[in-house]
Amino acid sequence: MATLQAFGITGFGGYIPRLRMQRAAIAAAHQWMAPGLRAQAKGRRAFCNWDEDSITLAVEAARDALASRPRDGIASLTLASTTLPFADLQNAGIVAGALGLPPTLRTLDVGHSQRAATSALIAALQQGGSPALLIASDRPRGKPASVQEIAFGAGAAAFTLGSDAVLATLLAASSRTAPFVDHFRAEGARYDYWWEERWVRDEGYMKLVVEAVNSTLQQAGVAPNEVDHFILPAPFKGIATAVARKLGIAAEAQADTLEADCGYSGVAHGLLMLAHVLERATPGQTLVLVGFGQGVDVLVLRTTEALAAFAPRRGVSAALADGQDHDAYLRLASYENAIELEWGMRAEKSIKTALTEQYRSSGQLAGFVAGRCRCCNTIQFPQLPYCVNPACNAPRENFDAYPLFDEPAEVLTHTGDWLSYYPAPPLYVGFVQFEQGARLLMEMVDVGTAGLDVGIPLRMVLRIKDVDKARGYPRYFWKATPLQA
Length: 485
Description:
The chain is built from 12 helices and 23 strands.
């Protein structure tokens, strides 16, 4: 296969939910019937807050990769996941709106396979063309008391692709399809059914993966001992080490599996590991990325000199460090909808989203777009018919679009409400003061044990505002969260 030099990875980023559950707490909760889980009880696993899902994770990963770089040149957005909230509504379109990408963007959802992300990355790199954004985002769920529950995590990774300032190019890639079923989830099922681990390891990874990697390395003209970073995501411990040893890849080349503080994040995990590796990789290194699931994807990549000049806004390393420790297992179970709690009559209100008004206001709501008055420079959200400055009152035609999602902000006032229904009590609300002058009453999330105080720096995050449970429709909007856990 010919080496592709003109098109490659031009940026990367990642996101891991701030909430981390102690695995020991999960094992302790099930000790009465599954004492064997104690063997898996080391470290922490990431889990989504009640208002996070694969869409919100994807937005945060993309923001990390894009940072303040121009977005109007991106021609396509691909979102890979097996846990997207909508089955018949394009999830990538929601992500594009939150990122403020141009309406001419081509959007695509890719799923139904653990190889969705690696297959999409191969296709994008081999096809080349216009600048693109590829996001993998997943939050696999494990049945309570299962090995999967204690081993799984959640996360997302994003990559920009193009021809300018390429950080890594594709040397070779291959895909093999095999009717090897290691696990599956039927339509409408909540959890996957898993086959026996030894069979999956010995017949799947140790044979199918080894054969595919060997073949692709030969295509690339790379010897196994020349691999600098070997990236093999797997839901079971020790598989990557065993495969690397059989291939003849050096032990020090094995990438961090992110097991200790994240857990296996499904479709997203290979790309999340890749983003983590690229933070530490140096120019001229060779990377091998593997995707496994009813076949094998293999990508052999080579980093360039441009890698030294790139850095994501926060990166996977910062997301790992920004963890909030939890040991109340029922919190995890509640957020994963594994138990049904009695929230009282306040939780019985009906929420139906007015899709007509949602469309009319999408220009403001999706990308958190305020208006800046050209007459007096007042920044206001929402954008009312006239400027809110009583000394101005200029009509809305004089407003310029001014997105707030990346604007520095801090707590102006705050309160914790234990009386209102809220899936993660207490409900923190208060006025947020933006550096540029805007002031807005907002919900504040992921507040740790230190609580809130006036002047604490905040950043904006896209989250689920509320859920219409009768119709299964989540509504998204921006919330504020402390900069540090």
